[in-house]
Structure formats: C-alpha cells, structure tokens
What does this fold into?
Amino acid sequence: MERTVSRQNTNLMQLVYGKATSTPTTTLNEAQDSSDDEESDGDDFFKPKGEGKKNLGEGFDDGNVNAEDCSKFTNLENLKNWKDEELIQSIRDRFVTGDWQK
Amino acid sequence: MGKTTYKRLKGSQNLRHRLLLATLSSSPILIEDIRADDTLPGLRQHEVSLLRLFDKVSDDCVVEINETGTKLKYRPGIVMGGRHLVHDCGVSRSIGYFLEPLILLGLFANKPLTIRLKGITNDSNDPLVDTFRSTTLPLLKRFGVPSEGLDLKIESRGSPPHGGGEVVLTIPVVQSLNAVTWTDVGMVKRIRGVTFSTRVSSQFENTMIHAARGIFNRFIPDVHIFTDHKAGTQAGSSPGYGISLVAETNAGCFISADMAIAYAREEETGDIEDEKKELMPPEDVGGQIASILLGEIEQGGVVDSTHQGLLFLLCALCPQDVSKIRSAKLSPYGIEMLRHIRDFLGVKFVIKPDPSTGTVILKCIGCGLKNLNRKVS
It folds into this structure.
C-alpha cells in the first residue's frame, strides 16, 4: 500500500511537470535578433497539413489542431444518473443533511 | 535600451496563460507557429481582441504581429488600470474568456480598474458572467482581496451569435495576496443559482428550475434559483437561455456549474450548415446542470474544475509562504496552468494524491509577487 501511494505521488508530479530534465513547453531564453530565418526550409514545404501537431492539444472536441483555450471542462457523456439510490447514498455525507455522526 | 530577451514559445494554445503570466512576471514573450498549418492561419479575432485589451489596461506595452498573424511578439508594460474603460470583446468568444485574465491584471494594477465589456455574456465555452459573480469573486476574497470595489454588474445580456450584452467589472488593487491553507471542503449547506433568458419565453426558466430542483430535492431542501428574464434592449440580439448554479459549503467553498444554450455561430471554420440545429430543451438543461453540479461536488475539491487554474495561480502569486489546497482530479486546463506557472514564475507545486478521498493535495511556496505598479498613497 505504502509503495503504491508513493509511486502515484511521483507519477502525478511527472504527469504535470514531465521527467526531471525535459520540459513540455519550449522555454529557451534566447537573445532575439531580427531574423525570420528559421521560417521553413525546403524540406517540409510540402508537408501534409495538420500532421505534425495533432497530438499537441489535450485532444478534446473541436477537431482544432491547436487546443482551444478554455477553462471549462465538463464531459457531458459521463453524466451519472443522480436519481439512482446507490449514487445518492454515495455523496449523501457531502451535504449538511447527511448523516455525519460518524 | 539594450536587447530585449524574449522567452520563445510555440503554438496557439494557452495564449491567455502566457500573456497573463508574461505580464505579471514582466517577461517579454515571442510566440511562433500560431496555427501555421491551419487553413486560416494566425491569431483569431478573440485573441487579437485580448491583445487589445491587455494594451488598453497597460502603459507602454508593445505588441507586434507579423503579416499572417502566425508570429507574435509581446513586451509587457505597466498595468495601469483606471476608470471608464470600454472594451468590445467581439462575438467570437464570450466575455468570460476575457474576464479570467483581466481580474488578475486588475488586482496588480496601478489604479483600481473599472471597465465596461461588451459582447456575449453567456455561452457554452466559457464560464457565464453569473458564475463570475457567484463563485470567482468570492474565491478572490479568500486570498485577501477586499470586497469593497470588487463587483461585476450585468447591465444587459447577449447570447451568441450576435451578442449585445454589457457588463461592468470593478477590481480593487492589492499590494499582495494572502497565502491560504485550504483543505477542508466541508458540507454543502445550500444551493443557489440564477437562470436567464434572452429573446425567448420566460417560461423556459421555470422549466429549467423545476427540472434541476427535482434532482436536488433528494439531497438538500435549501435550493433557491432566481430568474433573470431580459427583454427589449437588455436582451441583446440573439435568443438564448441557460443556468448558473453554485453549491456553498459550510467551510466557505463555492462549487459552480453552468450551462448556456443558444444557436451556434456561423463559424469561420468553413463548415456550412444550412439547417439550424435543434436547441436542447430546457427540461434537459435543468436535469443536466444538476447532474454536472453533483458531479463536481462528488469530486471533492475546494473549487470546481473550471476554477482550478485560477486557484493554482492565486496560490503561486502569494507571498513567500506555504499554501496548501485540496483539489479534485486535475483538469487539462489546470495542468497547463501548473506548467506555465513553473515556466514563468518558477513556482513548482508538490502534488500528492489523497487516495482515501480521491482528491489531490497541492502545496507550494508563493513567488512573492508584490504589486510594484501600485501607487504609494
């Protein structure tokens, strides 16, 4: 038990911040010179559109290649049926009306 | 002036995080490859509007965009704030999109901010303005923001696609925030909310309330949902309706959920849809929003999933003191925020799961951001 907990712990940190050295977003600090030079060299001139960056976004909805900047995160598919008695009991104690003697 | 060192970034994602954090940490940024492979490359209307808004509230900030809009250079200035500002948010995103970064800019401005925002007040992508009033502003108070001068007034509503709503936001300035230890969620003691309707029958609102209450009745009797039917010029230019709910706990947490229904915009994405899609009937809206709210309560964080990013950022901006919070499962937006906080402010959270409740405990030491813009009185 102990071990699984500690593993989960590092996993979460890794999930968010990545492995110790690699960073998920490019954060190079470079002195900015007036160059537009690294625009695109001939090789990827005929790259099929939208191939490279498909996996950049977290990949929910929109079909937009670049993830939509949106704080709302509701998943309508996973709605539970809150009229179900078992489910009601499961969060009963989250309410002041619940049984909180224990 | 010498050479400015720009932080180099790529892609269009998380533009709001990047601009906001660049401004707060005074670090210039250069973003490349903004939808470079898209059929319609470059910045979108709302993103340009956002840049204008940043420019409007600050002094001496420099924005450069290349011809195609795929490359953006931003050097933040001093956030000035000020009164009687007006900004047209356009109709490609709702006012909620602009409010999220704007409230933080306002807190760290030179003078208190009063700004009138025009556009769409309610849509399905961003939090409703009602949710800002009921949930976001109380969250700020938790971090020591004074409640005087903290307000959002809804003067008229506007639904997509044509908008026409207006709100007035006032934000006080702070010198610094207070670190929090906030792990007790408490129990839900009441549920409040408001429904709205523009250019549709006010009966829609009663139907939504009835459906939502039908589900809540099994849990708690203290449920009050107000109605806000707008008519005439206050109703904007398009039909729409929706609901914003907030569950308040006895430990002072506000868990919100909202939903807005309106006809879709004729998107610039190029899909031509001749037939208008049927709108979700109000009974279903009421039932779904109740389920979403109960889902958020079940998750067990001190804020709902929408406010995670803001919560993390507030913690990171605190003085050099330990903040400890309990969050529900991390949302993608929250995770992005954590990454950007590390990149811009150098604050790294210690993230530990709490398996017994299925929640996550986050701890951090704030970066000690002081409001240097603020006038010394």
About this structure: Residues 188-264+279-299 of chain B form a domain with the Dihydrodipicolinate Reductase; domain 2 fold (CATH 3.30.360.20). The longest helix of chain B spans residues 282-299. The radius of gyration of chain B is 21 Å.
